[in-house]
Specification:
Immunoglobulin-like; 295 residues; four-stranded antiparallel β-sheet; 19% strand
Length: 295
């Protein structure tokens, strides 16, 4: 990717704006103001420069940037990027009930805050978008203004990564990820050889079912060699990690195995932001265990 960033650094302002002017919805001025900050060390640094230009711009310019975004699901003209992004989230095939609620929430949101509801919809479903709208409609304007800007930055980053893929460069998966590690607190060492399974839970009324979607084994550091789930595969849902610690204790001394109370430790959690990192460690001992959200 080094050759590509060097090529971009040598572009004229016309070529630069032509290529990156669409990262921020109908706001080529962001790319135009960023051009003079070349040379960029990386595309990540270029993105930080663009985000900083937006953050430090006048309030009127930021508000206009927000207002350039189309209402989610609205049947209006929008940029080709926005059309594809909304279609990927299922917003081009809403039920009548979903469409009516989405339209009403959009109307309430815009009337209250003065700009449209903005969400980086990658990894979302129509229902998770509606739930986000319901919650954010209850916030204060300043908090929501900053949240909307953060979503704009996510959208721009996703568009840049898509461009890099088109240029033949592999990039880290867009979206969040689920990771874990296991620590044997009775010894103060990583727990190697623990089989970890990941399930997604589905609810249909009072019925609940679980489907296994990933499996791995902790390495010598007590970690997994790769995320259990990442990128576009991670969506808003309830998940459950199952740590098969009986197999781990069977590999230990006879005394430790005899003291071990647990055979399998389940940890259930909810993903509310598919663009975030969910690191859920397990701290295990023969008679106790604990967990937390790590980083």
């Amino acid at each position: 990717m080094g050759d590509l960033i060097r090529l971009v650094n040598n572009w004229s302002i016309t070529q630069f704006v032509h290529t990156f002017g669409g990262l921020f919805e109908e706001s080529p001025w962001v790319a135009e103001r960023s051009w003079s900050s070349r040379p960029f060390d990386s595309f990540g640094q270029m993105m930080k420069v663009m985000n900083n230009i937006v953050q430090t711009s006048e309030e009127k310019a930021k508000l206009q940037l927000l207002c350039n975004h189309p209402d989610l699901g609205a049947r209006i003209s929008m940029s080709s990027n926005s059309v594809q992004e909304q279609a990927d989230a299922g917003l081009n095939s809403l039920s009548e009930e979903q469409y009516n609620e989405l339209s009403q929430l959009n109307k309430e949101y815009t009337g209250r805050f003065g700009f449209p509801f903005i969400l980086a919809v990658k990894g979302h479903t129509a229902e998770s978008i509606l739930e986000s709208m319901r919650k954010r409609n209850r916030r204060g304007r300043e908090e929501e203004f900053q949240t909307a800007l953060k979503e704009v930055f996510k959208i721009a980053s996703i568009r840049l990564e898509q461009w890099l893929v088109q240029m033949g460069h592999s990039v880290p998966p867009v979206g969040g990820r689920i990771t874990t590690h296991v620590l044997d607190t009775s010894k103060g060492i990583p727990a190697a050889g623990v089989r970890v399974e990941l399930y997604v839970l589905n609810r249909d009324g009072e019925k609940e079912s679980a489907m296994k979607i990933a499996e791995s084994v902790t390495n010598a550091d007590g970690r997994l060699d790769a995320p259990l789930l990442e990128g576009e595969k991670l969506v808003k849902a309830v998940y459950e990690l199952q740590f098969n610690v009986e197999e781990y204790y069977m590999q230990q001394s006879t005394e430790e195995f005899g003291q071990a109370l647990w055979t399998m430790v389940p940890i259930r959690f909810v993903v509310t932001d598919a663009m975030s990192h969910y690191h859920i460690p397990l701290l295990i001992a023969p008679g106790a265990y604990s967990t937390y959200r790590g980083s």
